Amino acid sequence: MAPASGQNNEADASHGKDFIQLPKRQVVISMACVTLVVFLGAQGQTIVATALPDIVADLGGFDRYVWIATAYMVAATITVPIAGGLSDVYGRKPFFILGLAIFVAASALLGISRSMNEVVTFRAVQGIGGGLIMTSGFVAVADLFPPQDRGKHQGLLAGVYGIASVVGPIVGDLITAHYSWNWIFLINIPIAVPALLLMVWIFPSLSSESESRKLDYPGMVALVFAVVPLLLALSVGGVYHEWDSALSVGMLALGLAMAVVFIVIELRAELPIMPMELYADRSVSLGMIIVVLTGFGLYSSLIFLPLFFRGVLGMVSSSLLVPMLLGIVFGGIVAGQLLSRTGGHYQLQVLASTALTTIGMYLISTMNEATDPVLIGIYLVLTGLGLGGTLAVISVAVQNSVPFRLVGAGTSANQFFRTVGGMLGLTVVGVVMTLSFGSKLETMASDDLKTSLPEGLLESVKQDPQALLDPSEADLLRERLVEEGPEGIQNVDSLLDSLNAALVGALSDVFTVLVVTAALSSAAALFFRVPTDVERARQT
Fold first, then answer.
1. What CA–CA distance (Å, rounded) separates 366 from 504?
2. d(Cα 441, Cα 494) in Å, to the nearest integer?
3. Is 540 helix (H, G, I), strand (E, B) or coil?
4. What's the CA angle centered on 312, arms 307 and 316, to 5 degrees?
5. CA–CA separation, 317 vs 460, rounded Å?
6. I need a surface site. Which of 48, 372, 422, 435 has the fewest CB within 10 A?
7. For the CA atoms of 529, 413, 403, 329, what is the dihedral angle to 10 degrees?
8. Contact at 8 Å (CB) between 453 and 414?
9. Residue 315: which region, alpha, beta or left (left: phi > 0; alpha: psi -120 to 50)?
10. Which residues have CB under 8 Å from 84's CB, separation 6+?
């Protein structure tokens, strides 16, 4: 990722002149470390996807199902633009070392966590480390390679990022299937520690020679106080607190107010972390809207599909999630090739990709316990192709729409809004899931079942339905009710059937929300317009 601060044309012209050629051995080893830590940071976002049902089954806390993923993403997203600005002044090395140290420490703490609150807290800490190393990793290419060689190495890191996104859920599922969920975090330690030592030993210590640069500290603070309260309000509203409660309203008001303050600060800052002039370009502003909606669907589907596989189908999660992840990677590659070969028909490709996503999401929303696994795989491939194609085309379109001096800022903003969309999706869809499941269970459970169950049992399983995710919990529930006699035996099957039906219904509501967001991205794509390469050539 390039720095999110704007540079003037003179800086652009002199950037290559300021490059310091390092010894080849130092460059090779440093780039190997960069590639490794980018892989760690990227897979840290997705490795929990297939392990979430196991974590909830072990620790409870079904109502905080998405918080494990959201905590990492919130922390990492806020860290990215802040770390980018600071690393321009103090160099990448201190932030690599700090980020890796935080990542390793958080991984160790996650591995020994014994409660859902601990897991959520340490995931947030791990997200800070992940944000630091991801930002430093993409910007470090400028430290290691001259301008003419940076493109291919940025491409390498982008490929590593995509591979890590695919490998993460698969590795997470294999580890939880053969060991325990704790090891999806502990496995980071033997990988990250050697990289940390190599970074300390060999990575170059380069920093800006300018002492007069005014860092955008007010913008950094405002960004934190804008994003965090808004996401917390969305997470707890309607679940732990009513939407009209003082806490929910207060957090929403604070977040919105600070968002306005952040925009004002960025408009006046000498070197803003997020230049507002980017969004004066219609292609960029519409592109970011599409990216937010696409990120909403991407991250939400990655987190909630494993719950469907485990809770509804009773199948190994990664066996069905892989087609979607491969579809995302393949969709991005195909979209990029088509752009190069056809002269850049951005609108047509964005329309096709968002339409494919909408169709795929709709098909996913129709799934139930009787859906053929082959059909599920086809639905996921279609959705993945659409998601991957959309993200790839918008990324190139934004870079080709902004002035060269703002290419880095545009690229950073693209990643920032994609993750913001993902966080927004997880918080909103998490609330939908929790409320819908509780409501549908009340409807599915007959009056006779409600009156015959032990007091408080229905409310307990409604808040934390571990019997759907953990066979041992289902056995304990069965033993508890069987002790009450023949009526208890009937109640077991009736309650489990009600739980399963409520989960299917709630997940259907979740996927319906994703269909709506995909359709909105298709609507936005109708107005998306970027001149093709051929048209640009004619204009010049």
1. 10
2. 12
3. coil
4. 65
5. 26
6. 372
7. -60
8. no
9. beta
10. 1, 2, 3, 4, 5, 135, 139, 273, 412
| Residues 139/131, Cβ–Cβ less than 8 Å | no
- Where b means 16+ CB within 10 Å and e means fewer, 383-407 reads bbbbbbbbbbbbbbbbbbbbeebbb
Three-state SS for 529?
coil
Query: Per this entry, what is the length of the chain?
Result: 540
Q: Which two tokens stand for residue 156?
A: 């390498």
String of DSSP letters for 52-68: HHHHHHHH--GGGTTHH
On the 0-12 / 13-18 / 19+ scale of CB atoms within 10 A, 519 is middle
What are the backbone dihedrals phi and psi of residue 51, each rounded to the nearest 5 degrees, phi first? -95, -10
CA-CA-CA-CA dihedral for 505, 510, 514, 516, to nearest 10: 70
Q: CA 413 to CA 403: how far, in whole Å?
A: 14
Convert the pLDDT of each residue in 160-184 to its tens digit.
776 777 677 778 878 887 888 888 8
Structure tokens at 508: 């259907």
**If you search the block for the tokens 């219904």, which residue do you land on?**
505
Mean of per-residue pLDDT scores for the chain: 78
Q: Is 8 left (phi over 0), alpha (psi -120 to 50) or beta?
A: beta
Higher-pLDDT residue of 343, 56: 56
d(CA 445, CA 499): 8
pLDDT for 85 equals 66
Q: Token pair of 362, please?
A: 């709709």
Please provide the DSSP assignment of 492-519 as one string: HHHHHHHHHHHHHHHHHHHHHHHHHHHH
pLDDT of amino acid 386: 92
* Of 347, 329, 511, 521, the residue nearest 421 (C-alpha): 521
Distance CA 285, CA 414 (A): 10
Provide the b/e sequence for 411-422 (b: ≥16 CB within 10 Å). bbbbbbbbbbbb
122 and 113 Cβ atoms separated by less than 8 Å: yes
User: 200 is written with which tokens?
Assistant: 């300390």
Please name the residues in contact with 346: beta carbons below 8 A apart, sequence gap of 6 or more.
283, 339, 393, 396, 397, 528, 529, 530, 532
Measure the CA–CA gap between 264 and 274, rounded to whole angstroms: 11
Neighbour-count burial of 310, counting CB atoms closer than 10 A to its CB (0-12 exposed, 13-18 middle, 19+ buried)? buried
Question: Phi, psi (5° rounding) for residue 207?
Answer: -150, 170
